[in-house]
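Researcher: Last one for today. Full complex below.
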Amino acid sequence: MAIASSDNAIRSNKVARTFIYLFLLLFALFYLMPLGIMLVNSLKPLSEITAGGMIAMPNEWTIEPWLSAWSTAQIGVQPTGLRPYFINSIAMAVPAVAISTVAGALNGYVLTKWHFRGATWVFGLLLFSCFIPFQIVLIPMARILGLLEIAGTTYGLILVHVVYGIGFSTLYFRNYYAAFPTELVRAAQIDGAGFFQIFWRIMLPSSGPIIAVCCIWQFTNIWNDFLFGASFASGDAAPMTVALNNLVNSSTGERPYNVHFAGAIMAAAPTLLVYIVAGRYFVRGLMAGSVKG
Amino acid sequence: MSDLVLKDVRKSYGDAKVIHGVDLEIRDGEFVVFVGPSGCGKSTLLRMIAGLESITGGDVVIGGEQVNDIAPADRGIAMVFQSYALYPHKDVYGNMAFALRHAGEDKAVIDERVKKAADILGLDALLKRKPKELSGGQRQRVAIGRAIVRDPEIFLFDEPLSNLDAALRVQMRVEILRLHQRLKTTMIYVTHDQVEAMTLADRIVVLRDGRIEQVGTPLELYHHPKNHFVAGFIGSPKMNFLACDRVGDGTQVTAHGSAPITVLVKPRDAAGPFTLGVRPEHVDLVEPGQGQLDGTILVAERLGGETFLHVDLGDSEPFVVKADGNVRYVSGDPVGLSFPSDALHLFDANGDAFEHVERHALIA
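Model: Here's the assembly. Have a good evening.
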């Protein structure tokens, strides 16, 4: 009896497992489909797309659309390809991510380990900035960038993204450091370390997971931003997202869909890469922050 | 010269006063334990000495120098924390060397001092380990080692054994005591555990609500508590308290309508109601009717070597008697209690103790 029933349990388990994997496979395919179609169409000549074969595999494989999107396609009036704008985006996202992360870490450190009058209020206000819609600040921000004479430049975009990013990065680091033992800071004080030395030598070396979370979050947001890019950095300083839009909208005559697909993948590639490379740190960091509390 | 003097030290957070003017002198080489219930301000006082808390009023003087505004690292102190507070990303060596490296000390000097401290504490084999690879006792040893390496004038311990299990706590207690005998450095130790206080201290400072209740050697506090609070705090199981009336010339009392009980104290004018204090170990068990008070056994807690008898005298709390492990009493037995008059304590309405006629033989 006992053997039969355990046998039964294993069999029903197998059936359940088969269904689970089937469903997972189905959903994975469903979510991968758009990317798959983009990839397939970016690798076939335009004639095959206009002939109506969107889903079919290419008869003739070509990387011509990729080369075109990268270096020769018409962006606005210039046939520069997406390359300079890709570089713009890197030049914007990397410093903006770095500065907002370090600033957030510093804020979190001060808010949790160096209590001062009104700390809760300061944190509340910083948190509030996470909920301000981008559209509201467009005009005042444009005025400020104008006054600072960095309107229309990558520096201007860095500033905007740092300002907007600090709210979130502070939230991350404050919550992480709230669970960080204060006695460590006190011990370092007795050992003679000062404010910044404690930050660099005690806090940051223990902040790996939350730094990963913060960097991924900020990078994704900043790289994918279109509104600020379109508003504050037109022309040569435009980021990738804006350039992609210009690529798609500025073609004359026949629309080179294959080039558009290639450009879209290029624009999405860095964030995809970040998730693939650091995704597990992201999950781990989120867990570390929440479970410890 | 590393005498520590606290002069009318005060601390308040906004309107909340935490420390109400503490005066204390600690001599060079002394082992002093701050003890008191949670929230009595003992840890705050220690952190004020360390320089981790600002001083609202009064002076902290170390070795003749007022240090109120001197940074913790420059006060010549080292501190051991309850949570060990080891730097998680540094190995044992790195933890112990941190302060010296920070001070820009020579590499050879650092190496020598870390090795010496590791030798004292038996950490030689663990120098390359990270804190997470150590047991609780080893971590605590590293934390102590980190303090030794700094060669401080005063060691501060903030409940260092609270996170250890009972067996390890006893072992570390002895190690700390031997460390003090070896280094002969001033040590200030905070705990809420009165056994730690009694066993470690040259002198105990009993604190309550930010005030010093009494300062004295362990036996002084045990035999001559100044007041009701200290009497109840020192000793385990704690002292029994009975409401009583003074009769005769003031050195005899009756409690629960008992026969007169003689208490060997100096009589003085004081307002009642009075309280008689009797330690569980200072009661003799006799046949019912033979002692000054009779009661009924509620519970007998048998620990093997000794038995704690909880006796019902009609109060809300039972009267605890510490008896031999072989007594035959069981729940419900009637019992007589006899009080030897030289070990009794009498307190007035303010909780102040009456002075004993004679000092205890072990106290100079």
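Chain B touches chain A through 25 residues (CB under 8 Å). Residues 166-183 of chain B form the longest helix (18 residues).
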